[in-house]
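User: Some background: our group keeps a shared notebook of sequences we're curious about, and every so often someone picks one and asks for a predicted structure to add to the entry. Today it's my turn. The entry only has the sequence so far, pasted here. Could you supply the structure so I can complete it?
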Amino acid sequence: MEETPDGTPVGVDDPYERAGACDHLTGDGRCRYALNHAGHDPAFAAERRADDYACLVADEDADWPDCPHYRSTTDGKECARCGLEEVRMAHDATRPLVEEHHLSYADAGDADGDGDDPAHEITVGLCRWCHAKVHNGFARVDDDAAPDPEAIAERESRRGKELDELGFSTASDRFGDEASDGDADGDTDG
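Assistant: Of course. Here's the predicted structure to add to the notebook entry:
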């Protein structure tokens, strides 16, 4: 199983099996990296420019690992292991339910020169509970799992708060009869 630079398991044997489309891929099949970051890798940008900036993987003989700038990161809306959906509270600093989990890390220059360091950043979303299980080594990302009862309780608590914020209550419900009495007393012209 693949491991993090710190030696903890990431929960998959091959990160590319879980990876999606490249973050740099535009809707029309062009490489956004070559368009926006040509100065970072001029040779790569020149090669893409010669091919009208077409994505390298658009070639039928290429796969995502063949691109030196491939990156696939999560949107973090749902746990890839148990399916728990994220519920974020606006203007609230609570910890997210679904966190970004790295399956592989961008190459940091391959310090030891052995070429074994992964060269691409690939992430999936995992709920906090699945994230802990994967890093503790007793769970895999592709396990058939159900959300923890604690996770469901936390999600439902957040949904309850969300519904409370959407509710409508009149001023008389919120403040009692004092609000309507104050208006009546102040509007008399005599």
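Suggested note for the entry: DSSP finds seven helices and three strands in the chain. Strands lie at 71-72, 98-104, 121-127.
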